[in-house]
Amino acid sequence: MIPANTKFDPKLGMATREAFGKALVEAGRRNKDVVVLDADLSKSTYTSLFHHEFPDRFFSCGIAEANMVAIAAGFAYAGKIPVAASFSCFVVNKGFEQLRVTVAYPNLNVKIVGTHSGISIGEDGPSQMSVEETALACSLPGFVVLSPADEVSTTALVHAAIHHVGPVFIRTGRMKAPVVYPAEQKFEIGKAVELIDGSDVTVIATGLLVAEAIRAQEALEAQGISVRVIDFHTVKPLDRETIARAAAETRAIVVAEEHLVDGGLGVRVAQVVAETHPCVMEFVGLQTYAESGSPEQLLDKYGLMSRDVIAAVHRVLARKK
Description:
Elements: E1 12-15, H1 16-30, E2 34-38, H2 42-45, H3 48-53, E3 58-60, H4 65-77, E4 81-87, H5 88-94, H6 96-104, E5 111-115, H7 133-138, E6 144-146, H8 151-163, E7 168-171, E8 176-178, E9 193-196, E10 201-205, H9 209-222, E11 227-231, E12 234-236, H10 240-250, E13 252-260, H11 265-276, E14 280-286, H12 295-301, H13 306-319
Parallel strand pairs: 2-3, 2-4, 4-5, 5-7, 6-7, 10-11, 10-13, 13-14
Antiparallel strand pairs: 1-8, 6-12, 9-11
Helix pairs in contact: 1-8, 4-5, 4-6, 9-13, 10-11
């Protein structure tokens, strides 16, 4: 846990998509049953690293994401551990019917990895920005949904996903991410990481917004506001115990994510809060589709910075009884 008075001055690490590609190679060395499928984007998804080392276990499916998902299901039936990767907007949005019928319904051991998630894909524009895929993946019964914050958590969660028996979706990004965790940090599917303790309000964040939540905590601490920061790297299944405890102890929660507010992590957290210990909540996320621009410009324009988390904290505290 990061002490509340510690200044967060992270170094930029690699993009989580790159960390995924490197972890995938390591997973392939450990387990000969791991096979990888890609939809003609292997250099961008970094599955090219796996292709280079294990060419006989790599399958290029062309620009046919739905078919790729169905092929992955076939590999799972044959006892392999298939990892199918592409941009999130393609593999989840275009492949959703196959994810539903060929993977979720039979509850197969298929791993789906979406890269270039959110608006931080930048200049490629809204047609390739996936801001709905967390909601779509969470809607599939049996699916585990992971959203790592940095290279350390990505690496650990890729290995956890390979060991997990059942369908998994991992959300990764294009831009370099601040390194939040030490290399020795342990991660468990379904168990959130409490980064900073606090008593006035809880900020629950995932993905790129974890670093922004920590930056917001520093500024708010200077204002005399005690902020608990929790990384929900697992969006499904949720760590219900941690949510219920935060709601009971701080009585105010802000959820921050690089995803549409409708259907994202915030909605799922709110459901648990309503069922366990109702409290005031605010949400930092997207309300609409973005546009083309640099990642930094887009995150700033669409309200996904530490200042937006700070503003949400002030709003929720004003409503706290």
